[in-house]
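hi! just following up on the protien thing from before. the input was this:
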Amino acid sequence: MFSALLSALGDGGFTTSVLVYLANTWSWGS
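and the predicted 3d structure came back as:
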């Protein structure tokens, strides 16, 4: 899933921001 998402986005900066956001969301949600 992640590899497909990264390939679809293709922009390193935006991708990093999204992954950091998701990581933070999952962290607080747990």
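Residues 18 and 24 are 10 Å apart (CA to CA).
The radius of gyration is 10 Å.
cheers
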